[in-house]
């Protein structure tokens, strides 16, 4: 399961990097127009393009952060990590709300063996599989 999460995080980093590259290419192309080619009427379009590019980058960062949080929280609470991550990627905010309502409740405590967070009521740590005393 940890291997799947690591692969998904690696793929998400690649997608995020590609989105950043394409966004910067678009912005640099907008700046590449010479003074002779510049039409003052196009300024509004350029500003909208910049704004939408920033909104897209912020949305991608927020979604990736939430995917990573859902994966870590689901793992710590003993839920199906892959299922919740796929649900979040497909359905977004709706899946996040359903996850928050249906996840096992309780306090997260550090495992005495590995130090990662786990649900207090769990006997076995989902990370190192050490049994609770």
Q: Can you walk me through this structure?
A:
With 133 residues, this protein is mostly helical. It folds into two domains: 101 residues, no CATH class; 29 residues, no CATH class. A two-stranded antiparallel ribbon has the order 1-2.
Which descriptors would you attach to this protein?
two-stranded antiparallel ribbon, mainly alpha, elongated, 2 domains, 133 residues
Q: What low-confidence regions span 5 or more consecutive residues with pLDDT below 50?
A: none
For the secondary structure, the number of strands is 2
Largest sheet: 2 strands, antiparallel
Strand order of the largest sheet: 1-2
Structural class: mainly alpha
Q: What Rg is obtained from the alpha carbons, in whole angstroms?
A: 21 Å
pLDDT averaged residue by residue: 75
N-to-C CA distance: 25 Å
Number of helical stretches of at least 4 residues: 4
Elements, N to C (H/E): HHHHEE
Percentage of β-strand residues: under 5%
Secondary structure: helix percent: 55-70%
Tally the structural domains.
2
- What is the overall shape? elongated
């Amino acid at each position: 399961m940890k291997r799947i999460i690591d692969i998904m995080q690696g793929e998400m980093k690649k997608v995020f990097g590609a989105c950043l590259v394409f966004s910067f290419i678009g912005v640099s192309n907008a700046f590449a127009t010479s003074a002779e080619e510049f039409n003052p009427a196009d300024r509004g379009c350029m500003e909208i393009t910049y704004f939408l590019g920033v909104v897209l980058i912020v949305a991608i960062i927020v979604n990736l952060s939430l995917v990573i949080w859902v994966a870590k929280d689901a793992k710590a609470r003993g839920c199906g990590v892959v299922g919740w991550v796929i649900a979040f990627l497909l359905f977004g905010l709706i899946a996040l709300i359903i996850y928050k309502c249906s996840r096992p409740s309780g306090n997260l405590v550090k495992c005495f063996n590995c130090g990662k967070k786990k649900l207090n009521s769990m006997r076995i740590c989902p990370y190192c599989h050490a049994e609770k005393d």
